[in-house]
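ARCHIVE RECORD
Type: protein–small molecule complex
Small molecule: zinc ion
Source of inputs: curated submission
Record status: active
Notes field left blank by submitter.
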Amino acid sequence: MGLKIADHWFERKTIDDAITLLWEPYVDPLIRCNIWHVRGRDFDLMIDTGLGIASLAEAAKDLLDKPVKAVATHTHYDHVGGHYEFQECIVHKLEEAALRNEDKSNFAGLTKDTIDPYVAEKIEASGYKLKDVLVTAIPKRGFNLEDYELKGVQNKITTVEAGDVIDLGDRQFEVLHLPGHSPGSIG
Ligand SMILES: [Zn+2]
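STRUCTURE (tokenized, with ligand):
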């Protein structure tokens, strides 16, 4: 199978002075998340981090001039793959263990056959035709799709729950608990 080697893994759009949207263009929309970098006075947030196939910290290096806390909207693998790179992570208390990757239940891979058959069936029933391979490029020569794995977070994790406020000094976010898609989904 001849997947091309990407010369960059992330693309970005500057929303304003403080907000940048990043994404992984060669990842199937099914597992491509929005990655938001938000500048703050005291620290920055990186809200979701993608699959962790390539280094987000490296790709966003020019944006990162102060401490960064990586927020997990939830801990499915397509949202938290790069969290291990950041000094501190923020997650709902119900998904702390998942962010440590202590259970592997949130994990699938880059090919259709790694997705739980029950989940795959539900995805297809909703009208989405699952492709056999969920990327259209690889990040570097010799990268094997089967070798991809989710790295658990070893760094500091701060847990949050409904009503907590994340205060960047000049911008405040109130945590909304939005269970459904996963038990600890937050907005
Ligand atoms: Zn999800």
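CURATOR ANNOTATION: Residues 4-174 form a domain with the Metallo-beta-lactamase; Chain A fold (CATH 3.60.15).
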